[in-house]
Amino acid sequence: MNYTESSPLIESPAIGFTPKLESIIPVPSNETTCENWREIHHLVFHVANIFFTIGLVIPTTLHLHMILLRGMLTIGCTLYIVWATLYRCALDIMIWNSVFLGVNILHLSYLLYKKRPVKIEKELSGIYRRLFEPLRVPPDLFRRLTGQFCMIQTLKKGQTYAAEDKTSVDDRLSILLKGKMKVSYRGHFLHNIYPCAFIDSPEFRSTQMHKGEKFQVTIIADDNCRFLCWSRERLTYFLESEPFLYEIFRYLIGKDITNKLYSLNDPTLNDKKAKKLEHQLSLCTQISMLEMRNSIASSSDSDDGLHQFLRGTSSMSSLHVPSPHQRGSAKMKPIEEGVEDDNEVFEPVSPNALKVHQLP
């Protein structure tokens, strides 16, 4: 016979232990386990979060990404303040979103200020569109370049910009804005200079490391001319602080020297033909500025050097044979020859474009 009745002594510890367990184990309540959800917040709260979401999913590749992001955050913070003030009556939520709103408004104002349209003077707009804009120079950077240490000067027809063996090349660098100039050596015409071209680019390149040099040619205004003139020393300091602009000038000056060399081979070159040279390589790539300056300036008592150079450029082949009659100038330092690498800053050149064609 099985007797299963429990004794009171055995039940007593369990009875005494149960209240202690109940006090240790927390009893779930509606407030902590969210069994009874509260009512949905006002529509303003949800619209604010929609604006936050839109701002965060805007792709960074978009041009106005940061402006749109700050705009969405500003609208979202504003709606949060409205919701916290009118429908939630939560002072802390209103204060924090007011702080966020102020930060976003300041940042948005700064971004809009940077994107403001930069007005370029009408007289300089041609240079910007033709020379600097295709190379992706921002308008504000171009304005800094032309607004602090340069000036626009005027020359009347027949006035001299530079006289050979007299004018120093250390003072300035200029771009012709309007008119036409002619370059000559001892009365012999060499080539013309047209608008949007550097006036003294060969001298700027050849004397970058030397001081006290003089012009080896004479440059005279063939028409009423206006040109943009930089202080060479201040321009050099500015370009040292702007590596991007330094490469831009390096490219533009090299291309301008190339066009001038081409005009030496083709005296009939006019302004329209000069514009077409910007995307072409010509026979002048075979001739160095060193040969031109040294050939012209080497003869101090006769004109043989000039005639020899002009004859040689029209019949020069791709393999240049140095003439024993040519010697370095004692006044002008030789120009350092270097290949302009357009791939460093600009679009790659196709292999077919690198072929040099001889003139008939």
TrEMBL record:
GO terms of biological process kind: cell migration involved in heart development; epithelial cell-cell adhesion; hematopoietic progenitor cell differentiation; positive regulation of locomotion; positive regulation of receptor recycling; regulation of cell shape; regulation of endocytic recycling; regulation of heart rate
One cellular component (GO) term of this entry: caveola
Main location: other
Subcellular location(s) of the protein: Cell junction, Tight junction; Lateral cell membrane; Membrane
Gene Ontology molecular-function annotations: cAMP binding; structural molecule activity
Protein name: Popeye domain-containing protein 1
InterPro entries reported in the protein's UniProt record: cNMP-bd_dom_sf, POPDC1-3, POPDC1-3_dom, RmlC-like_jellyroll
Domain POPDC1-3: 41-266
Transmembrane segments: 40-60, 67-87, 93-113
Family according to the record: Belongs to the popeye family.
Membrane topology: Multi-pass membrane protein
Record carries keyword Glycoprotein: yes
Annotated gene: POPDC1
Species annotation: Canis lupus dingo (dingo)
Keywords: cAMP, cAMP-binding, Cell adhesion, Cell junction, Cell membrane, Developmental protein, Glycoprotein, Membrane, Nucleotide-binding, Tight junction, Transmembrane, Transmembrane helix
Keyword Signal: no
